[in-house]
Design brief:
With 324 residues, this protein is α/β, with parallel strands linked by helices. It has 2 domains: 145 residues, D-Maltodextrin-Binding Protein, domain 2, CATH 3.40.190.10; 141 residues, D-Maltodextrin-Binding Protein, domain 2, CATH 3.40.190.10. It contains 11 helices and 13 strands. The protein is globular.
Length: 324
Amino acid sequence: MLFLVNKLLYGALLAGAALLLACQDATSEQHVISTPAQQKTHAPVRLLADVQLETVLQATRLPYANQVPAYPVDIRYLTEDKAIEAFLDGDARTLVLSRPLTEQELRVHRQRYNSPPQERLLATGAVLLVAHPGVADTSVQMLQLLGILQGKGQTWTNGQRIIPVCDGGDGSNLRTLFLRLGVSPARIPGLYATGSDSATLAYVVRTPHALGIVGYEALADAQDPAVRQALQQVSLLAVADKPGSPAVRLSAEDAIQHLAKGRYPLAREWRILTREGSSAAGTAFATYLTGPFGQRLLYKCGLMPADPPGREVELVEQTIPVLK
């Protein structure tokens, strides 16, 4: 008797989190779907994306180009604020970012283009908090994090004042923290801006009292030697939603499980916005990333897919002879 299971059980998906493949290995699956060579190829179309997702999106470029050669894309990576500004100014019709547009941003879009953009969820990522390995603290509470962002003189248990460090004030890392804390974005007293996540990690390594704020997306590939080396030089902190609640730490072994179950307080949802017809390259790229193959690639890069791809399993009932 045949039984068909149309959706991959979350348990199976979560159990495989510890076996994540490297993002660069995603290109090994590019042969799965082929496109007729005679199909017309259009000129490359520019897309805008948050720089925090550059590592992940670059891993999808070659598989996409192989499977959808007719609609090539040219991705321009910017900080969140600059990417949204360019999108609203018409520099591109497709944008990948980690939050919904604000009411003000939507109002500007409607005024300029007569309708809101179409939005599709891609996957869930997160913001990580890292400290110098010499710091005894292993976790941070959200209320403590709010005090740090408001410049209220939070300290480590050794008495040293915490210095917040991140890529900059116009990026999505800080924006994610403000959104998750439920406060409006504001200038952070004492913030040290480094310009990039790699520079933030380097600063934390040489500064014992720094608190690094970095994107999980670029550090999710535990098979990447550079990522392993970077994580070995810092202490990855757990985050507690409120006093008394368990602190959750994202690691290569259980990150997807925590993201899937909504346990990590600093999670963020990546989405792709478009304002064009279904035949355009930006929409083709969006359809690819939100489809089964694209979602599988995002999973292999360490993100929790918005729509985990299904798998068909066929069970056959048959008589097995018993040896006497």
